[in-house]
Amino acid sequence: MKNFISHVKSLSLWVRLAYMLLFLLLLSFVRVILLLVIGGQFLTLLITGADNKNLRSFGQSLASWIFQTMQFLTFNSDTKPFPFADWPAAMPSDGFSIADVSSGSSEDNVVQDESDIPSFTSTDIDDRDKSK
Predict the structure, then answer these.
(1) Residue 114 included in any domain
(2) Which of 24, 58, 67, 130 is 20 to 30 Å from the Cα of 112, by its Cα?
(3) Given its phi and psi angles, is residue 96 left (phi above 0), alpha (psi -120 to 50 degrees) or beta?
(4) Is residue 10 scored above 70 in pLDDT?
(5) Which structural domain, as residue segments, surrounds residue 49?
C-alpha cells in the first residue's frame, strides 16, 4: 500500500499524463492533416498520373511523427516527439506513378510451377476423392 501511495504522489507520473493528453489532442488534429495529404496525393495522381514529391516527403515525415508519438503514448519511449524534439526527417523514397502499375503484365505474377502450391491443398483433396 505504501508503494501505491508513493506512486500516486509522484510528480513525474502526473507530468507524463499531461504530456500524454497533449499528444492525444495533437493526434486528433493530425488525423485531419493526414486525410488532406492522402486526398491531395490521390487527386494529384488522378490528374497527373504521378504522386507529388513534396506531399510524399511530408506524408512520410508525418507518419514518422505519428509513430514516435505512439511510441511515447504506449510507454515504448520516454522521448517526447515534436514540438519537444526536432521534426522527423523524411527518408527519400521512390515515387508512384500510374505508368509503373500499367507497364507490368498481370500474367508475369501468375505461379506456373505446381511445387509452389502447399501440399495439403492437392493431396488432401485427392485422398478424399479416393475414399468416396
Answers:
(1) no
(2) 130
(3) beta
(4) yes
(5) 2-98
Q: How far apart are the first and last CA of the chain?
A: 68
Residue with grid cell 504506449, as numbered in its chain: 74
Grid cell of 77 as nine digits? 519511449
What secondary structure does DSSP assign to 17-68, as a single string? Answer: HHHHHHHHHHHHHHHHHHHHHHHHHHHHHHHHSB--HHHHHHHHHHHHHHHH
Cell numbers 496525393 label which residue? 41
What is this structure's pTM?
Answer: 0.69
The position carrying cell 515534436 is: 82
Asked if residue 47 belongs to a domain, the reply is: yes
How would you class 77 by CB atoms within 10 Å of its CB: exposed for 0-12, middle for 13-18, buried for 19 or more? Answer: middle
In this prediction, residue 4 carries a pLDDT of: 79
Question: pLDDT tens, 96-125?
Answer: 877 776 665 545 555 556 666 666 655 555
Number of independent structural domains in the chain = 1
